[in-house]
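Service request form, structural biology core

Requester: graduate student, group of Dr. S.
Request type: structure prediction, single chain
Budget code: on file
Notes: please return the result as structure tokens.

Sequence provided:
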Amino acid sequence: MFISLTKILLFILIIVLIASGLAYLLDAKDIILGDVQATIAETEYILTPIQVTLLLVFLCVVIWLVLKVLSLLVSVMKFINGDDTAISRYFMRNRERKGYQALSDGMLALASGEGHVAMYKANKAARFLDNPSLTNVLAAQAAELSGNRRKAEEIYKNLLQLPETRFVGVRGLLKQKLEDGNVDVALKLAERAFVIKPKHTEIQDTLLQLQTKTEDWEGARKTLRTKLKLGHMPRDLHKRRDAVLALSQARDVTKEEQSIEAREHAIEANRLSPDLVPAATMAARCYIDSGKPKYAERVIQKAWQAQPHPDLAAAFSEISADETPDQRLKRFTTLRKIAPEHRETKLAMAELYLAAEEFGKAREEIEGLVENEPDARILTIMAAVERGQGGSDELVRGWLAKALGAQRGPQWTCENCKTAHAQWTPVCEKCEGFDTLAWTSPPMTNMSSSTGLEMLPLLVGQTENPDDMLADVIEPEGQTSIKDAEVNEIKTGKMRAS
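Core staff response, request fulfilled:
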């Protein structure tokens, strides 16, 4: 308080002196050609403008020194009066000033990408400042920028010792382990960081990614609930992601043959996201196994309304596995009414007509698809129709040849990396993205698919060796034609059970 008051009084005194000097100069009548004439103690002085400037600079330096001496004298007086730390605080202020200046320079160097300069400034700041929470953070980032990961790791571990810097240390180590691909250690660090700062969005996302990667579905659901509770995720997106996680739980439990728990997770997944096709199919099969076919029908119908899919059609066929082709055709009219113009509806009906040996109606269903969006599955069905209607081997081979070079059609494709998957998975096998698979046509690929050329119509059934159907396409002309047995299987194949 006394020091602050003294500085204020000295500042006011300096201002008064400067104002008085200016007033004197303005009133002087002896200013000729830029020179200043002054009389001090009956002695006249004539000063040039340069001399006046130098004099002012000298006075400023003298005033600064006087202030420093006065500040030191004040500290000495306090020491004499019993303040044992007064003098040390005086010198400490100078050290802090130098330390914070070095810290500021280091941060600027860090922002400029000068790692070595930032490291030097961080070390200098550490010498002057007794504040490791600041200097160590700067030093760690500078070490990483300069490529010294070992030094950075050492500093991050030191940061773990202080409560205020513990999160920074954990986050820094987490980043390093992610770069190294050490998933197990990274997961533990992410969990620790999440405990320290559960509201940190980056840590939430990192932890969720690691939990899905390691198939910790229950942990991932807890993290997801936290994101929803804190307002970091829309409710509709949360329901979708939670459904995917519940479905993943059901799939894992199924592997362990815990049917009751699997059924509960599958039904929950379907309840959370009725349009999630894998959840709907699993829930429907759970209801079928439980002797609740009506529930299974409702689940499939609701999912079909959102997205018709061959897996839904296959599950729908399982509701009554022992019915005749005509009975199945009649039962499938409920799905047809929901989306009559959708390609999956037309394909399902075409396959059912094939099973019932109504080849003309099968042709009517897919003729438009053959013209507008011919893929391998459509062209394969067309080959079966031609054979069923008595078409020549050359004509059938022509359709199969077209199927060989055609797109596979819709598959479970990652929206990020465009990788096609033979089956739905919660995590992309290539880019490890969570919930990124969509039923769409990927870029031209040889990836096998549940509805690809390697299969006969989904609902009609498979041949014992589907590749045999294509043998004649690649065999030299004049050799064995399409086998009658295979043709028979195309014409009379039964509805697939799974």
